[in-house]
Specification:
The structure is a homodimer.
Chain A lengths: L2 H14 L2 H10 L4 E2 H7 L4 H14 L2 E6 L2 E6 L3 H32 L1
Antiparallel strand pairs in A: 1-3, 2-3
The structure holds a DNA duplex (30 and 30 nucleotides).
Pfam family, one (chains A, B): HTH_5
Protein name (chains A, B): Winged helix-turn-helix transcriptional regulator
Keywords (chains A, B): DNA-binding, Transcription, Transcription regulation
Chain lengths: ~110, ~110
DNA sequence: TGCTGAATTGAAGAATTCTTCATATTGCTC
DNA sequence: GAGCAATATGAAGAATTCTTCAATTCAGCA
């Protein structure tokens, strides 16, 4: 398999590796939104949000259209929802696993 | 929604944001493998591979057991396969989209 | 015990990514 | 056109992550 493919996949995941960008994608799951609205829900400076939106745009995960005085963002493909769901599943498993581990440790300590 | 949750998700994706780590996960999709074998398939130094395996271990994406003289790695949860599949789907869409765009641009240039 | 192969760890400099601030662009509205 | 609100961009220092090299651990075996 070609090396650049792994690089592309890694780059892709890396663009998801930022809390603001994740938050944006999750908000856009419910439909398109203007920047102003995103800004209202994410506690971050406007210029910082713009930077993160630019990253998402460059990667092609979102698209933006100007509507009057504002810019409306939306998910480039609904497949992103599946990806986020898969990630949530894994995280849930992992946290559950840790919970069990914790329970075991506590039981052990109580002996 | 709690902020640390987004941080956790971002951290999670960030651990996937490295070509060697992606490669390892894809190799482990087919079943457990000793480090020596991974090393045979990925063109990288042993110590570098170890570093990346350590990252995957810390995040809980893989688990390792010692078997005699070697250490065998495996996926912590099969859900990871779904995640990689979802990512592949999105990447395919994106590349297809670019292909179409390229085709359009070429048609335009030929006018 | 001492050696060897397999894998990991620690640490330092290089490279990349983040955050922030200042400045620029764009389209309203007067 | 001037002023204003919304968004984007550029650039610099701070913070994080990568790569590499040397040193270490650990099991198995002579």
């Amino acid at each position: 398999m070609p090396v650049p493919l792994y690089q592309a996949k890694a780059d892709f995941f890396r663009t998801l590796g930022h809390p603001v960008r994740i938050r944006v994608l999750e908000l856009l799951r419910d439909g398109p939104r203007p920047v102003r609205e995103l800004l209202g829900e994410i506690e971050v400076e406007a210029s910082n949000l713009s930077q993160q939106l630019a990253v998402l745009r460059r990667t092609g995960l979102v698209s933006a259209v100007r509507e009057g005085g504002s810019v409306v963002y939306s998910l480039a493909t609904p497949d992103i929802v599946d990806l986020l769901a898969a990630a949530r599943r894994i995280l849930t498993d992992m946290i559950t696993g840790q919970g069990e581990l914790l329970a075991e440790l506590q039981a052990e300590a109580a002996e």
